[in-house]
What we know:
Largest sheet: 6 strands, antiparallel
Mean pLDDT: 79
Number of helices: 16
Shape: globular
Amino acid sequence: MSALVEALEVERAMRGxxxxxxxxxxxxxxxxxxxxxxxxxxxxxxxxxxLEDGREAxxxxxxxxxxxxxNGLVLDDPFVSGWxxxxxxxxxxxxxxxxxxxxxxxxxxxRVASGELRPGMRLxxxxxxxxxxxxxxxxxxxxxxxxxxxxKLKQQILTVAPxxxxxxLLGESxxxxxxxxxxxxDQSGRTGAFVVLNCGAISPELVESELFGHEKGAFTGAxxxxxxxxxxxxxxxLFLDEIGELPIGLQSKLLRALEExxxxxxxxxxxxxxxxxxxAATHRDLRTAVQERAFRLDLFHRLxxxxxxxxxxxxxxxxxxILARYFLDQMAAESGDKVFSPSAMEALATYxxxxxxxxLRNAVQRAAIFGGAVIQPADxxxxxxxxEMAGGExxxxxxxxxDEVEREVxxxxxxxxxxxxxxxxxxxxxxxxxxxxxxxxxxxxxxx
Length: 448
């Protein structure tokens, strides 16, 4: 029972760390953009953890999982600890905290001590797989903005959603690709689940099993039969995030599943028919990947029946103040009512936001935590992002092109972190893969 007490202490620390400005769990990183589940009707929704055998448990405040009889959800699995993990609903977020289990807690195939569980994501404890499902009124997808680019995107989603066409979402990291995929599902009328698989977050050896499932004994460690995401999304939508990271050896199998609408689990002798609408996303240039023979041309054409381009935040500058006020309103419950000064609004409007909506959200969150009742530019844009750099470096922006400023900011961040790309990406509020792409594009010399 001491492990459960320790996990609850970790959970309280996580809530406190949000107030102190610590970065949210890494599992949120890729694909997340604007907003969060919001709006009326949340009280009428059921947030549940569903097992493959159809059993489920409602997530209401705190739910404990384990094999001990006094858990909220008791699991008959010899690989599950007595008190394995705690699932806690915190407003519009669901957080999972491992209780020091023997065999670990996995979110989307990645072992975590704690992390955010989003709708459609797989939670694995021991040999038991669960999926979080939100039932009831549709969640507002949070595609906020009145710019021409956002109006066009919303109209395209409404037009494409009712069809069976596969959709490829293109855009930089942090532009909201997962929210767009969720909006496509919500507007599609499909009654199955919305299932998420991040192809870049799973080791290559496990991708095939995650996609198509496996039979008991199919490989070392396969102690039980397991459904893949295609089966779990039967009748619904499968969102394949970071599709550009899919190993080339598995691309032909994914192509066949899309063409035949059937899947064969690893170690199975037969196939299963599935009715799945696939939405894929990437921040990479897949046409270049095709030319470099890193991505199959036939798979690219199969995935890109419809291509939707998500605009970067610098292309929709008029939406910046709308988004900033929305994020600030979200923080009011924790940080109190605050407002932006005119100079802060000017700083928001003139900065390039290379990390897109995710970077803006993080900047507003920091300002709400550390700033006063009236937020100033220094609260939003610290020295590591724009302005003075370590050693007295400064980036002047007046009269210069955005790409020139962005190149200089990235180069300065790399100098400040001694070439550590992960640290530089964290300081700039962008994914490491995005920073690496920009380093190559701008031909920035950096060690590490």
